Every structure is written in C-alpha cells, then in structure tokens.
Amino acid sequence: MSKVAKRLSPVGASKRSVPRFKASRVVRPAIDAPPASGVLEGRVIATSQPGTVRGVLAGGETIEALCPAHVDAVWLQAACERGAVAAAFVLVQPSGRHVLWGIFPGPEHAEVRADIVIRGRQIRLDAEALQLTSRSARLELDAEGNVAVKGRDVTSHARRVNRIKGGSIRLN
Fold it and tell me: How far apart are CA 72 and CA 74, in angstroms?
C-alpha cells in the first residue's frame, strides 16, 4: 500500500496518525477593521428598488438598507410621501450592510392608507373580537359567539345545498 493510500484510508484502518497542520491566524490592523455591529437610529426617507429602503442616520449619513418582508413597502412609500419615518437600523457583520430593524410611525402617518395583500395557504386571526369594515359593509364576530353581517345587499351562494340552521329562523 502506498503512503498516499494509507493517508486516505478510512478512519481506524491504520494506526498511523495523520499529520496536523496548524492554522495560521490572520491579524488585521485596527484601521482596516469594519465598524462594530449595533443598532443605529435614523429615518426612512424613501423606498428604492424592491427589498431596499433609503435612510438617513442620526449623524446625517445616507444609507441603503435591506427591508424585511414583514414591513409593507407600499405603506412605507406612502408614509414617506407625508414625512420621514423614524426607524432603527442594524449594521450586520461581516458584510457591513444595513438592515431596517423597525419603524416607528409618527402622528403624521396615522391616516396613511395603502392596499395590503396578505398571501398564505392558511391565514388565522385569533382575537376576542374581530371586525372587518369597509365603507358600507361590516362583518363582526364578538367574544360571546355572535356573528353580524351588515351591508346593502348580502348574497349567499352554494353550488350544492345551502342550509340555514338555528334554534329558530326568522325571515323578515
């Protein structure tokens, strides 16, 4: 058996120890070291390309930051049109990129409205009471188990049987 084959043979096949190499340490001078990680105070001033926002740090530095998926970019853009949104950014290592950590809308953003799309295979809302409201229609579920549907016209449609069950049923 050759020397190379012995070194490459499975563990326990040979009692001969494999030489270990010492890992050399790379020491960077303090001047070339990237800035320390941490939470930075600032403001979001605009959304740029998808998944990123433009911000200004408290010191005046303008940055591009990654925007997490749970922050609605459409709402954030509409809010930035009214005024900058207070935010916290995180500087991540080793890349040195900024990431939007959280937003803190002010009173000027209270009336900002934007279309929101929620996608999922199953969406669950768990609450004591729930109310879905549009201009002239409302669906209410309360803690006692009452369900109220109010609207100009209410339509119930079934491809098969449409059942109405209850202790008593009143029509008109």
Answer: 6
Q: Is the pLDDT of residue 139 over 70?
A: yes
What residue ranges define each of the domains in the chain, with the CATH number in brackets?
Answer: 38-109 (2.40.50.140), 124-152 (no CATH)
**How far does Cα 30 stand from its chain's mean position?**
35
Residue 40 β-bridge partners: 89
The answer to whether the peptide bond before residue 50 is cis (omega within 30 degrees of 0) is: no
Q: Which residues of 125-145 are buried (b: 16+ CB within 10 A; e: fewer)?
A: eeeeeeeeeeeeeeeebeeee
Instruction: Read off the pLDDT band of 29 (50, 70, 90).
Output: very low
**Threshold 0.90, pTM exceeds:** no
Q: Is the previous residue joined to 94 through a cis bond, with omega within 30 degrees of 0?
A: yes
